[in-house]
Design brief:
By secondary structure, this protein is an alpha+beta fold. The protein contains 3 helices and 7 strands, in the order αββαβββββα. A hairpin with a 5-residue loop joins strand 6 and strand 7. It is globular.
Length: 157
């Protein structure tokens, strides 16, 4: 089911997310709905805050970046749901890249972000993972992670 996307100005976009526990009701359906909502809006990431829920949950699927006119091979096949994520480390010289946001339609601006991050998160089965991401994968994760912290990309401008 496609969920309504919350627009800029809604207070939920500024709320840090609450941690998710295995007993969260209908979590698998929520994750499926978030992916469907993201695809319906032609996005590459979506955080729970963007569908009105202050949770530490976001989904990403960068497949459309591979198929687009500015194809980016480094993001090929990168589809994940991230629960209770925490950025453990950021490294490298910040680099600009034009970002947009489904909650702030029509606005796109260059944002400086560090190119390498180390992330700890749980998958939908609540198994912990830790990995280092770089380039556009790191950028998409940072953008969506910021949502779970109540931060928006326009805060960097």
């Amino acid at each position: 089911m496609i969920l309504p996307i919350v627009a800029y100005g809604d207070p939920v976009l500024r709320k840090p997310g609450a941690p998710l526990a295995p007993d969260y009701p209908n979590l698998a359906q929520l994750i499926d709905d978030m992916f469907e909502t993201m695809y319906g809006a032609n996005g590459v990431g979506l955080a729970a805050q963007q569908v009105g829920l202050a949770l530490r949950l976001f989904v990403v699927d960068t497949t459309s970046m591979v198929r687009g006119e500015h194809a980016e091979a480094e993001v090929d096949g990168f589809k994940h749901a991230f629960l209770n994520a925490e950025i453990l480390d950021q490294a490298g010289n910040p680099w600009p890249y034009t970002e947009g946001c489904l909650s702030i339609p029509g606005i796109r601006e260059d944002v400086l972000r560090q190119p390498v991050i180390t992330l700890r998160w749980q998958d939908p089965s609540f198994t912990w993972h830790e990995a280092t991401f770089s380039g556009l994968r790191a950028r998409v994760i940072q953008h969506e992670y910021d949502h779970t912290q109540g931060k928006l990309f326009v805060d960097y401008l």
